[in-house]
Amino acid sequence: MKSYQMFIDGEFVDAVDGRCFASQNPYTGDAWARVPSAGSEDVARAVDAADRAWREGPWGQMTATERGALLWKLGDLIARDAGRLAETEVRDNGKLMAEMLAQVRYLTQWFRYFGGLADKIEGTVPPLDKPGYFQFTRNEPLGVVAVITPWNSPLMLLAWKVAPALAAGCTVVVKPSEFTSASTLELASLFLEAGFPRGVFNVITGFGAEAGASLVTDRRVRKVTFTGSDATGRLINQQCAAQFKHVSLELGGKSPNIVFDDADLDAAVAGAISGIFAASGQTCIAGSRLLLQESIHDVFVERLLATVTNARLGDPMLPTTQVGPITTPAQYDKVLSYIDIARQEGATCVLGGKPSDIGGLFVEPTVFTDVTPAMRIAQEEVFGPVLAVIRFRDESEAIEIANGTAYGLGAGVWTRDIGRAFRVSRQIEAGTVWVNTYRAVSFMSPFGGYKDSGIGRENGIGAIREYLQTKSVWINTEAPPANPFTIR
Ligand code: NAI
Ligand code: MG
């Protein structure tokens, strides 16, 4: 078994009390890595280091250009080590090597983009209405940022948060998911190699209720940025409210893929499949509801089944595998329980609907038809390879169904009618709408949720603002007022 240490104040360390836990490989079922279990004392040490690094360390004195250069260098090191980092992720979360390798390689761009942005954050000089003053604004870092990430794409979601936070001049303490801590600890050694001052990037590993909660409630943490379940997001939001902390939340979804009868059906079938069966449906943007216009419903389902029936489940390291395992035993149980719920609610299972014969944590790609919008399978996030197919009559009904959940993360619209593409994308309540494609993301493109899918935006120029606060500075350019009891 491989043994990992946490990364605090530029050093790899064990938990103060020496506690550890094991991380499983979801494909083999083996415990493959030992990871420290942080308690409140470890968390306090990490926040201490981050707080000192921001206030006293060289980080706070560096120019934004110098900070940007370090981020750029880190990006280069990630590109160099992408293979090793991706393998570590696959071992821990069971996603396909092909996907993880592409994802990790792409992360280089986040560090370059935000590294380049670091020294382009300018203040303003308002054309002031009051003579005798000069007034300007500065954008200053918030301070210590807590970064809490889930197990589905650990390094990608980390990069979305850490790159803009560091570009803004903040320091960070990362708490990766207890199911996938290893890749974040491997990344820590690249921060060391790139030459980041100590305390700028810290990693504590452990469980949400203990390490996570201690981190969120530490008074010195000025912002929490979180990706994960809505239940945990709600709790974190309440805790941040009590301490007036800034917070960004990227939560769940029940994203609709809407196919109109004029769509390119081959493209839409491919989009529907990648929307829900890539990563075994374990993505926040999974297109878990397929809305089909009545006239194409049957032919579309037929074509979709023809492809998915032959999907190759198996070893995520193999390039020929198309569907990997579910990442955790609890998630596996959750997926199967939603399959039961869908059956009880009267949906028709036309594919899968059970554990795969190959055993382990594999669930067969599953498709339910005859789903109605009020069913739980159409309202609640499964986070697994389970597709709910819903019929609609016309554009207005499609929009009503699409918007009829608590969520609003993503949506796909498939049509050849340009007017309809604009109309529908405007009316969909979601942070991202893809027209005739699905699942595309970029470091340049803002990403986040409407409604219960979250607060705040990641990626794009605006993302750096999530880690800055504005200071207004007033300079008096005239003699003091004659009467000190009046303020101008
Ligand atoms: P979770 O939301 O509990 O975990 C995400 C992160 O939050 C982990 O690092 C965890 O340790 C941490 N955490 C948990 N409780 C915390 C607390 N009280 N204070 C601070 N940090 C805490 O999600 P989990 O249990 O891994 O998965 C449960 C469900 O969440 C899944 O079934 C899925 O539906 C959803 N999920 C959504 C994701 C998304 O990308 N939106 C990603 C992963 C899971
Ligand atoms: Mg694991």
Automatic annotation (TrEMBL):
Aldehyde dehydrogenase domain ranges (all copies): 14-473
UniProt cross-references to PROSITE patterns, sorted A to Z: ALDEHYDE_DEHYDR_CYS, ALDEHYDE_DEHYDR_GLU
Active site: E250
UniProt GO MF annotations: aldehyde dehydrogenase (NAD+) activity
EC number of the protein: 1.2.1.3
Keywords for the protein's UniProt record, in alphabetical order: Oxidoreductase
InterPro entries given in the database record: Ald_DH/histidinol_DH, Ald_DH_C, Ald_DH_CS_CYS, Ald_DH_CS_GLU, Ald_DH_N, Aldehyde_DH_dom
Top-level taxon of origin: Bacteria
EC class of the enzyme, as a word: oxidoreductase
Family classification: Belongs to the aldehyde dehydrogenase family.
Identification of the protein by name: Aldehyde dehydrogenase
